[in-house]
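WARN retry 2 of 3 for item q-0093 after timeout on previous attempt; input resubmitted unchanged.
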Amino acid sequence: MKQGDGSPVFGKRCGTYGRFLCFAGLQQKTMGDGFINRTVPVFSMEVWKVKKCIMLIAATLFVTMGCAGCMSSESKVLAKLEEKYNQKFTVEGVKEGSKIFAQMYGKDRLTVHPEGNPEVVFLAQEDKDDKEVVNDNYVLAKWAEDLKAKLAGQIEKELPPGTPYKVLLRIAPDKYDKSMVNMSFENYLEESDKDFSVVLVAGINTAYKPDLSTYKESIYNLFKLMKGVGSERYTVSIGFVGEDVSDYVRTSLVNNIAWTNLKAKVYGEVNIDNQFDGENPGADANPSLIIKSPDDVPKHYESIENNEMGK
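OK item q-0093 returned
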């Protein structure tokens, strides 16, 4: 038990000064014409050391058991994932979920890729309601990589050599399942209602803030290329950076990090989506930002001044 100032309390008889005497193990009181030496219960330092040791062991066990639980969860999800698709996967990382409020906040979430193929990176997570079910977007990641391969020649023609880029697909989970894992994206496109999004993410490396007149035509062509995929929604997202962002681009399907929040040297970004398509603009699109030609692209450039490294 402790006082408000953190000092031990050694019994109700101890005052400010008496506390010191109690700690020393002796409190003297005057009775008549003599002293009575009275021993007061002492808070043994040996007992305190034992208690501290027990507390430390308990804390260590708690942390160890927590880590073991996380490892157990990771192994369980990985095993079910490999059984689901009949192939091996590699775990890149684990974001720990809520053990108490799993229904509300979700369980542990794994970032995974097929063994030997880190480009097809996706998420896997145990279902909130059924622990025997693992939810993932492997099919989506696989289709996106197929589409990237199909468009690679046209995309790379518009980007500086060596620019990292990624094609992403956003499709509602109820519109695909594990039985479609071997279906080509082209076949899915023929059968789908086109209610999905396709996004091109690229990080162009520059030594300084970009001159948009150098890139406007290429970005315009890439925007038209994404539109040509055939989805209802399409976006081009270009970051202008001063360092290698290959891994950020590679994991852009799962990292959920905007250019503005990237911990890297980022000068600015251009984001254009279907709302600004000059042939079919959205009802709420700002007329001055509608893309009718390459000359309209620079209007969508945003400098990332709040990024300290990008200044």
